[in-house]
Amino acid sequence: MARPSADAEPVIVTVAPCGAEVTRLQNPAVPYTTEEIAAAVAEAASAGAAIAHLHVREADGTPTHRLEVFAEVIARIRERSPVLCNVSTGGAIGMTIDQRMECLAAEAELAGVETGSLNFAGEPFVTSGDDARRVIAAATDHEMLLEAECFDLGHVAEAARLQEETPALRMVNLVLGVPGGAPATPTTLQAMIELVTPGTLWTVTAVGRHQWRMLAFAVLLGASGVRVGFEDNVYLGRGRLAASNAELVTQAVDLCALLGRAVATPDEVRERLGIGARDE
Ligand code: KMH
Ligand code: ZN
Question: CA-to-CA distance for 20 and 57, rounded, in angstroms?
């Protein structure tokens, strides 16, 4: 059985504050600079987020892979908040795998690893088996734990195979609704959950207009976590733009409360992952 009982553990809320593709044309509150991203993450953490899934931008909003920008945003977050940092090695469409891996030297606690390829909203987004193993090896060298980013059913199966090779791959994020990936439907989510290795923390991301009902379904099914933030959806509901990432986190926390589940603190997540407390 891959999942804990529905009300067993507090829900881990991850905030994905800016992603790589969303812009201020979609929502003027999308943070771009390291200062803006760090402030958004800290505010989201105060609202209940325990993990921040991080992409970074140049000041004009262009997605960047530069290590110094990742290092700066993490340093700024750590000045403000105990939230765990999870750097994306998905990067942005068009980045090479070497560029996507630069962030692994930024001293985050966690890294994402793609466990397969897809046409991401029509664009090739390629991660070979060798690429995934390189990410895992480099992250392990940096003493990081990993979260598999699974955009389709086969990616979940591949994550399970990779877990047989590496104990550091401790979380899977089941992503629904990206055009070209798994559709945001209850049956799809249940099929993905069936493939999660027992004992793995599994979180659910759903993008766009199907987000909130799919997150509700995930919470009811006993998900270890859910993800919200401007990377996934800039709306609180139909036609209601969110004013901030924190507002999206607050809605996720309220959803969990409505469905009878508490949310996890960063310290609780550290304990569940076996990560020591952060030195101040
Ligand atoms: N920006 C997308 C092409 C991840 O962070 O792992 C990929 C992405 C996935 O956002
Ligand atoms: Zn991402």
Answer: 7
